[in-house]
């Protein structure tokens, strides 16, 4: 998977490298993402930008931590031939202020929380959906936990009281 990364108003360095590491971990737990033909656009941006995207595309008038905009459905992804032209899998957008607030509330590093949200978003782009059923939610969470463990990050679901 190829990444197109745009960093707007996220303080510090290392976000591009983090996204690359997360993509590698996501590919290891969801091999359908590992195609060289796939491209994912990742935008590290502000709450205001994510709020606008959420309002425009999802009719939700608020910011959120991560937005996923798939451009292939799961069947198309699974049927993707190894050879052929590039395919845009989708776009992800992370909202800095919301991510930072959530990380502080969970008493974890912003980079660890951002990694979790990137894995979560990439799995959404691969067609996983935690909102369809409890079984689907458990499967998606298990993949997230496994990918994050590869990155040396603990189980983000270990304390259910901190979930949103």
Automatic annotation (TrEMBL):
* Pfam family of the protein (one): YbeY
Could you state one GO cellular component term attached to this entry?
cytoplasm
User: Which controlled-vocabulary keywords does the entry list?
Assistant: Cytoplasm, Endonuclease, Hydrolase, Metal-binding, Nuclease, Ribosome biogenesis, rRNA processing, Zinc
Instruction: Give a short account of what the protein does.
Output: Single strand-specific metallo-endoribonuclease involved in late-stage 70S ribosome quality control and in maturation of the 3' terminus of the 16S rRNA.
**How is the co-factor bound, per the entry?**
Binds 1 zinc ion.
Question: Which gene is this protein's source?
Answer: ybeY
Q: What is its EC number?
A: 3.1.-.-
Per its record, how is this protein called by name? Answer: Endoribonuclease YbeY
State one molecular function term (GO): metalloendopeptidase activity
Q: Which GO terms describe its biological process?
A: rRNA processing
């Amino acid at each position: 998977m190829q990444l197109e990364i745009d960093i707007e108003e996220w303080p510090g360095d290392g976000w591009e490298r983090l996204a690359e590491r997360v993509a590698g971990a996501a590919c290891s737990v969801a091999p359908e993402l590992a195609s060289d033909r796939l491209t994912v656009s990742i935008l590290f941006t502000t709450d205001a930008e994510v709020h606008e995207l959420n309002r425009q595309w999802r009719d939700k008038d608020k910011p959120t931590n991560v937005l996923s905009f798939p451009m292939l459905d799961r069947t198309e992804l699974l049927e993707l031939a190894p050879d052929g032209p590039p395919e845009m899998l989708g776009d992800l957008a992370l909202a800095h202020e919301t991510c930072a607030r959530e990380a502080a509330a969970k008493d974890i590093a912003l980079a660890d929380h951002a990694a979790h949200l990137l894995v979560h978003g990439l799995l959404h782009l691969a067609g996983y959906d935690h909102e369809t059923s409890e079984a689907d939610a458990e499967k998606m969470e298990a993949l997230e936990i496994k990918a994050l463990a590869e990155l040396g990050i603990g189980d983000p679901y270990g304390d259910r009281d901190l979930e949103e």
